[in-house]
Known about the structure:
This protein is of the alpha+beta class. The chain is 45% helix and 22% strand. Strand 2 (95-101), helix 5 and strand 3 form a beta-alpha-beta unit.
Amino acid sequence: MRRPPLQTLIALVLTAVWGLGLGITHLRGDIPFIDGAEATLTNLRNAVGGSRQPPDIVTIVAIDDDASRAAGRYPLPRASLATIIDAIAALGPKAIALDMLLVDPGDEAGDAALEQSLRRTNIVLAAAGIFPESRQRVTDNSKEPLARVPSALQFLEPQQRFAEAASYGVVNVQTDKTGTPRFVPMLFRSGEWIEPSFSLRVVSAATGEHPTVISDHIKIGDRSVHTDTGYLMPLSFYGPRGTIRTISASAALNGQLPEEAIRDHIVVIGATVTGGGDVFPTPFDPVLPGVEVISTSITHLIAGDGLVRDRGVRLIDLYFAVGLPLVIVSLLAWRRNTIGLIMALCVVLAWLAINLSAFKHGIWLSAALPIVATVPPALLFGATQLWLGRRQAGRFAEQSERLQRIQAPGLAEHLAHDPGFLAEPVHQEAAVVFIDINGFTGLSEAIGPAAVRELLNGFYNLVDEEVTASGGAITSFMGDGAMILFGLPQPKRTDPANAARCCIHLADRMRGWLATLPEATASRIGFKIGAHFGTIVASRLGGEGRQQITATGDTVNVASRLMEVAARNHAEIAISNHLLHSAGHDSLPYIEGRLEGPVETSLRGRTGSLAIWLWRSHASSGTP
Length: 624
């Protein structure tokens, strides 16, 4: 078996080191510079999976616009809040969760009524953590698990009278750079003080089971909650707002709560009132109410249907971060051709299928990490191989080398005999023709690179044949267009007539070529031709490694702008009066098709006007 080249071995070692470094960093927590990409890819995977029906566990009682009108104002009076709680409690819920901060005192009568309501029911209140950043990060590298939970500067707790009447938990969620909630921390700390999350406290109240904190997960009774670094539970949203059953709190105020939606359910009371501000962007809804985010996390804790992203999943991410780039680089080194690219693409598609399938089944494998681990080494290795391949290319003979430096194929033979041709710029008369494909940019985005290449090859061959037959020279192909000169290497009296004839023949060939293309392609593209005659500056530009013959000046600019005139007037060709006059009345545009003009026309970027002629074939003009 042949030993791999040294540069391939070096590339594989560096690739492995790069992937391993990223994987180990990821194992300790999210990597900030790829966090945004992971957020976008996670949203995409959520969108691909679509909405789903949540388990019938949680009912939201929303303090919405109707409830605010029924209570007379927002925020609701504490007495109205007490009425809502009493109405819910009367229907036998498993637990009530009040997703509102009761940190400020209200009027004494209302606070007293609310306190009594809290004492009569199984309810959990919301507290909040104040963090030094808008996003609570897990940064402590200590091996002690509880040292890595999100650390708050302080907790905003309910008023003491309310805190003594009910239990409470911290309601904060952790968002990514886009503001989308990705995790609900199960535990929070402030100094040496550890507080459970609001969601965890609610589930404990509903089940009567106290949570147990273990080294890498949390147990509630006989159920294990898989958590990420720092006891973070990933969120998997069910759909847009209203996907979790939502009832207006006005029904509670009016005594019209449906018993079947309350009894034996966890009821979460929260604000959805317009302008309330407690909303988050999610993959399904740009303004999902915060109460629905909390309700989603509570449902996950009981049903166990959330995403799993724990240390085991992050270890799998590490393996992909090392293995995927190694396989891709190995394939590119083994087969430096289309087969190697196809095999590499198959490996990428297989990884993508695994990633999407895992996500669909509730396992959150990182998508951004393997991409970041793979793309730079693959691009760098490919670029290095290309550079080395070019260095190994042999030198051509002196004559062939000169010909390779010139882009205009019609001038190659002359350059071979006269290496000093256009070494200095020259002013001379010449006819300039431009041709371009209409609608090519939009088509190229739809048909793919292989079809684009085939289409352009047909166009280039067509133009080359007609220009060569007419005695012109192609100075450059510019993507979906070409620039053609008549007047090099030496100007001739017949240049205008030859240019005019070339325009007509190009138009005829283009119509025939378009007719051979599939209807879906031909219907989206067309062509336009502009031609002018006058003085140009011909020169040879570039360094010793590569040069090209080019023409500049007003004549070139006008010829290019005439294509716009042709397209604007739905003509195939726009010819300047000067070129047509120089070509003579026996030139081909007068004989074939329909010629209209001259018309004084303004050109973009040019003062004054120019007399031009518009030419259409009989087929395009509709004449017999």
